[in-house]
Specification:
- Helix content is 74%, strand content 0%.
- It has seven helices and no strands.
- Helix 6 runs antiparallel to helix 7.
- The radius of gyration is 24 Å and the shape is elongated.
- The protein starts with 5 loop residues before the first helix and ends in a 5-residue tail after the last helix.
Length: 184
C-alpha cells in the first residue's frame, strides 16, 4: 500500500484546499483549509478507531503545517486513501500563507486566553444551578428566534442578565442586613 509522508500529505491537502476554494470562492483560504481538514477528520473517523477529537485533529494538522510534528501513520494513511495516493508538489507560497494564518490564529487565541483568564477563574468557582434556571430558557428562546436576533446582542443580553441578577443579590443581602437587628 502506498502511503504519503507528512510533507506529501500536507502538499496534497493544500492542493485539495485550493480546489475546494475554487468551488467555494466566498470562503477565505483559511476557511477553506479548515473545512477540508474537518472533512479529512470525518473521513478518518469513519475508517479508523483511535481518532482524536475534531479540535485535536485540527490542532494536530496545524502543528504539522508549522513543521512542529510529523503526522502519524494512521492519519497519513487516511489522507493517502482520501486523495487516492496522488501526491503533488508542495505549493510553498500557500504553505507559507497557511503558516502565517496559523501563527496569527494562535496569537489571537493566546490573547483571548490572557484577556479572559481572570473572569474564567472566577466563573470556575460559581454555582451552576441558579444560573442555569435563568440562562437555559433564554438560550432556548434565542435558538427558536435566532434569525431575528444578532448573536452578539444575545451575548450582551446574557451578560446584562448576569449583571442584573448580581445587583438583585446585592440588594437582597443589604436588605437582610438592615432587617436583622444588631446585638451589642
Amino acid at each position: 500500500m502506498n502511503l504519503f509522508n507528512t510533507n506529501e500529505a500536507i502538499a496534497t491537502t493544500i492542493n485539495g484546499v485550493k480546489k475546494y476554494k475554487s468551488e467555494y470562492s466566498h470562503l477565505t483560504f483559511f476557511e477553506a483549509f479548515n473545512t477540508v481538514v474537518i472533512n479529512l477528520y470525518h473521513y478518518t473517523n469513519g475508517h479508523e478507531d483511535d481518532v482524536c477529537s475534531k479540535s485535536e485533529y485540527v490542532e494536530m494538522f496545524y502543528a504539522a503545517i508549522m513543521g512542529e510534528i510529523e503526522l502519524s501513520k494512521v492519519y497519513r494513511c487516511a489522507i493517502s486513501n482520501y486523495y487516492s495516493f496522488n501526491p503533488v508538489p508542495i505549493d510553498t507560497k500557500a504553505l507559507m500563507e497557511l503558516r502565517e494564518l496559523i501563527a496569527e490564529r494562535r496569537q489571537y487565541l493566546n490573547s483571548l486566553d490572557e484577556k479572559t483568564a481572570e473572569i474564567r477563574r472566577i466563573l470556575g468557582h460559581q454555582a451552576f444551578d441558579e444560573a442555569a434556571k435563568k440562562v437555559f430558557p433564554l438560550c432556548k428562546w434565542h435558538k427558536e428566534n435566532a434569525e431575528n436576533e444578532d448573536i452578539n446582542i444575545f451575548y450582551i443580553n446574557l451578560f446584562n442578565c448576569g449583571y442584573i441578577e448580581g445587583k438583585r443579590a446585592e440588594r437582597k443581602r443589604r436588605h437582610a442586613q438592615i432587617q436583622t437587628p444588631q446585638l451589642h
